[in-house]
Amino acid sequence: MSGDFGGIVRLVAREVLRPRSAEEVAAVLRDADGPVVPRGCAHSTYGQAQTDGGVLLDMRGLRAVHRVRPDRVTVDAGATWREVLEATLPHGRTPPVLTDHLDVTVGGTLSAGGVGGASHRHGLQADQVLSLEVATPRGEVVACSPERRRDLFDAVRGGLGRHGVIVRAVLRLVPAPERVRVHTLAYATAGALLDALRRLPADHLQGRAKLDPVWRYELTAAVYGSGPEITGAFEVAETSYAEFVDRMRPDVAELIRLGEWARPHPWGIVFLPARRAAAVIEATLAETTAADLGLSGLVLISRPVVRNVPALPVPPDPVMLAMLRTASPGAADPAVMLEANRRLLERARAVGGTRYPIDAVPPEAG
Ligand SMILES: Cc1cc2nc3c(=O)[nH]c(=O)nc-3n(C[C@H](O)[C@H](O)[C@H](O)COP(=O)(O)OP(=O)(O)OC[C@H]3O[C@@H](n4cnc5c(N)ncnc54)[C@H](O)[C@@H]3O)c2cc1C
Fold first, then answer.
1. At what angle do helices 334-350 and 274-286 cross, to 10 degrees?
2. What CATH code is assigned to 60-175?
C-alpha cells in the first residue's frame, strides 16, 4: 500500500523493507543514515506512517502470535488485533480493550494509544501492555516494562514510532464472555449523552451523534454475559462475543464496495475536558453539515480513561470527539474538511483539550 487510510498525504520512501525479526529491525535502525518510519496497516490519516525519502519498515512481516497463557499473550508488533483474537478466543481469552476495526496492528495502536469501547473501564490498549521489546534508534533490542527501562516503556507507548520500533508485546488477557447484550439508547443533548457515558454500568460504551434532520445522540451500551440490566434502550439485541467484536466487518465490506473506503478520510479527533466537552461538541456540530462529514462520515463520542500513557497528553476526565469525515462525491473538499479539523483543534485547545495523534490536521496547527 502506498499512502495511508487518510489519502491526503502521499510521501515517497527511499526504500521499503519488510523485516522478519527484531534483529533485522535493529540492524536497519543502526545502519540508517536518515529517518526510519515503521508502518503497520497505515490506517493513520495524515502521513504518520509514511516517510519522505527515508526507510519505511513494513511491520506486517513480523506478525506471529506466540504463546497464549490464561492472563497474557506474546505477539509480534505487526500482528493485527484480529490475528491476536484468532489465537486467544479458542482459549476463552481476549484482550480487555479492542479497537472498533480489528484490522489494525498491535504496534500501530500501541504507538497511537488505542481507544476502544471498553476504555471507560480498562483504559487504553497502551494501558494494557505488560511488557515490550523495542528496537531503539541506536539499533539495540531492549526489553522494557513498568519495572524495567520504564523510560523507554513510557516513550514508545503513544510515541508514534519516534523513540523506537515496538517489535514484540506481552498483552494482558481476560476471560472472554460468550454472549453480549447490545442496547441502543437515545439522547437529545450532548450533556445527557456524556452523563450516560459516565453512569451506565456497561462493559462497552460508544456514543454517536447523528444528523436526523437535527443533531441527535445515540449510545451503544453492551453488557457481557449475565451483567447488569440497562434500562431505557429503544433497541436490544443479543449476539456472540466473536460477532460483537467484529461488528464492523459487514460495514467495511459495504464501504469497500461503494468506493468510500478508498476516498480521502480527513479525520479530526480530539480529547476534551469533560466539564467543557458538551459545549465544544454542540458548537462543532452546529457548524457541521452532512457535506462536512461525507456519505459514510461518523461522529463518535466516548469517555476513555487514560491510566498511564505519559506520551499521550490528555486533559483530566477526557471525552473523545471523533469527526470521522469521508470526502465522498458531492461532499466538501478535503481541504475544507482539514480546515474544519483545524478549527476543532483550536476550539479544543482553548479549553485545555489535545489531539489524538493519528488524526488529520495540517502541521502548522499541529
Ligand atoms: C476504520 C478504522 C477504525 C479505527 N478504529 C480505531 C479505534 O477503534 N481505536 C483507535 O485507537 N484507533 C482507531 N483507528 C485509528 C488508527 O488508525 C489506529 O489507532 C492506528 O493508526 C492503526 O494501526 P495501524 O497498524 O494502521 O498503524 P499505522 O497507521 O501503520 O501507524 C500508526 C503510527 O504508529 C507508528 N507505528 C506503527 N507500527 C509501529 C511499531 N511497531 N512500533 C512503533 N511505531 C509504530 C507509525 O509510524 C505511525 O506513526 C481506526 C482507523 C480506521 C481506519
1. 150
2. 3.30.465.10
